[in-house]
Amino acid sequence: MTKQQKLLTLNLFLLTFVLGTSEFVIVGLLSEVSTDLNISISTAGALVSIFAISFAICTPILTAVFSRFSKYPLMLILIMIFITGNILTALSESYKLLIVSRIITAIVTGVLIALAMSVASDTMSPEKRGPVISIIFTGFTIASVIGVPIGTYVGQLSGWRMTFWFTSLLGIISLIASSATIPKGLKGTKSSLKKQIGLLTNSRIVIAFFIPALSIGATYTLYTYLTPLLLDVLSVPERSISLVFLLYGVVSIFSTLIGGKFATRNGIGKLRYVFLIQAAILGLFYVSSSSTVWGLINISFIALIVYTMNSTMQLYFIDLADKHFPSAKDLASSLTPVSVNVGIALGSGLGGFVTTNMELIDVSWFGGIAAVVASLLTYISYCLDRKTLSGLESAQMKCNV
């Protein structure tokens, strides 16, 4: 890569780190928010769901609307709105204002992620796209490993509002870096909103959308209830729970980087086997949980595989759009993070159903079933790709004759 490409990659990594820290840090501050605003912990927890729902609904729509604009000024404006949203959160004296500020932040977060992926795809060579996108995704992972603990510590030490002054400062740094590294020549694509939304009705896109949703959902069926699993099933001391989560986050960083290697060539073909391995690892927790050591080792393997699909699916959506809906590439760039948020909701919901009606440990094999379904959908997509390729080769041979 050129020096400019390396600086751009570093900046986009910083951007996703900032976005991820702002999104996830509220989880560590729910007690402080509920006490300060005199609301219940469940009411404060609704902020997490509100953010995810706003993200999932608004991201594809606004990405389609904004795709006609040049990316350089658009991204700078959106980062400024992101900073404003965080400042508004820091100034919130009521729950209603806090909700509004988090919705604003969620909306621009989703669009900025889509644009970051689109910029990386447009500016990097084909062999570098996968590794670079995996680095950008790693920004989110490191946000949960480093940014969230730091933000939580700042909030516990100086009040939860100070955390969002902190994320506002990070946003300003990202704004300065983006103004210096994002190429100014990346034009938008002029297309009607109807044509772009047509991407979302394409059967290939619909099938692909549920692949990351089911894979992440498989993990979150178990991960959502990891704390009670550690305490009640693995008998891990309560003082060690935070350490386990930290180690999980560190290992998951490697998951994203490994995924970048998969994405370089025939990633979708490899993922069908990766998801079967994921299913086996999740199902194996049902057995390994009888031992604290083996259970923790099993959890580390869950972390190692959780994000391996990110880069492949990101490129797959972009490539599908390039073939069938060229004017909707920016919209396609938004589908992986949207699908992941849908998967988190599906997984936590499935885990809640299992823990309510069955034994806690049963979340392991229910998660495994979800991963098997993800593998099946991946196999279907792979077969459709092969069929399309065969059709193109046949048509090419007829032309040559």
Topology:
Elements: H1 3-24, H2 30-37, H3 41-66, H4 71-91, H5 95-123, H6 126-158, H7 160-181, H8 193-197, H9 203-223, H10 226-233, H11 241-262, H12 267-288, H13 292-305, H14 310-324, H15 329-333, H16 335-357, H17 363-400
Quick summary:
This protein has helices at 3-24, 30-37, 41-66, 71-91, 95-123, 126-158, 160-181, 193-197, 203-223, 226-233, 241-262, 267-288, 292-305, 310-324, 329-333, 335-357, 363-400. With 401 residues, it is mainly α.
Number of discrete domains: 2
- Portion in beta strands: under 5%
User: What is the CA-CA span between the terminal residues?
Assistant: 41 Å
Shape: globular
Count helical runs.
Answer: 17
What is the share of helical residues?
A: over 70%
Largest sheet: none
pLDDT averaged residue by residue: 85
Order of helices and strands: HHHHHHHHHHHHHHHHH
Under CATH at level 1, the class of the largest domain stands as: Mainly Alpha
User: What CATH architecture of the largest domain would you give?
Assistant: Up-down Bundle
DSSP E strands, number: 0
Structural class: mainly alpha
Q: Please identify which CATH superfamily of the largest domain we are dealing with.
A: MFS general substrate transporter like domains
Q: Report Rg.
A: 21 Å
CATH topology of the largest domain: Growth Hormone, Chain: A
In the predicted model, the low-confidence regions spanning at least 5 consecutive residues are 395-401
